[in-house]
Backbone:
C-alpha cells in the first residue's frame, strides 16, 4: 500500500492538470471523467441530471472548441480517447433517460470525439463501435432528437 505524501492534497483530477498563469486549473480529461461520475451535487427536481455532470459536458465541449483555435494546448479529445476509447462514460449517460438539452450536450461531446478520431487512425475501430452502439442501442433517442431538431427548424 502506498502512503500519501502531505503534498498530494490536490483536488480530484487536478494532479495532471496544468496550472495557468492566473492560478486557475486547465480542464483535463481526469477532471472530465470525474465530473461524469460525480453524483454528489444535485439540482432541485426529480428529472434533472447531476449538476457536475452537466458542467463537465459543457466544459468538455467548450475546451474542444478552444482547441480548434489554439494548437499549443494538449489535445483533450485524444487524451479522452486514450483513457476511454469507446466513450463508455458518455454513452452511459444516455441510459439514464436524459432530458432533451442533456442529450444535445451528450451528442455534442460525442460529435467532438468522433470528428477528432478521424485524424487518429489508432481510434478508428473504437469509434466505429461507438457509432454502432449509438445506432443499435440508442436509436430511439437519436430519432427523437432528429425529430426535435427538424421540428424546430420548420418553425424558423
Residues:
Amino acid at each position: 500500500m502506498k502512503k500519501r505524501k502531505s503534498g498530494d492534497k490536490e483536488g480530484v483530477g487536478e494532479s495532471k492538470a496544468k496550472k495557468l498563469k492566473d492560478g486557475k486549473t486547465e480542464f483535463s480529461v481526469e477532471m472530465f471523467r470525474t465530473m461524469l461520475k460525480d453524483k454528489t451535487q444535485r439540482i432541485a427536481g426529480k428529472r434533472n441530471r447531476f449538476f457536475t455532470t452537466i458542467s463537465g459536458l459543457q466544459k468538455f465541449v467548450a475546451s474542444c472548441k478552444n482547441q480548434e483555435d489554439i494548437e499549443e494546448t494538449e489535445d483533450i479529445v485524444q487524451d479522452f480517447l486514450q483513457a476511454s476509447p469507446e466513450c463508455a462514460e458518455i454513452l452511459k449517460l444516455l441510459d439514464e433517460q436524459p432530458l432533451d438539452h442533456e442529450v444535445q450536450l451528450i451528442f455534442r461531446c460525442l460529435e467532438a470525439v468522433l470528428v477528432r478520431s478521424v485524424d487518429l487512425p489508432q481510434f478508428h475501430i473504437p469509434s466505429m463501435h461507438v457509432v454502432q452502439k449509438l445506432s443499435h442501442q440508442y436509436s430511439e433517442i437519436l430519432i427523437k432528437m432528429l425529430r426535435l431538431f427538424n421540428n424546430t427548424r420548420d418553425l424558423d
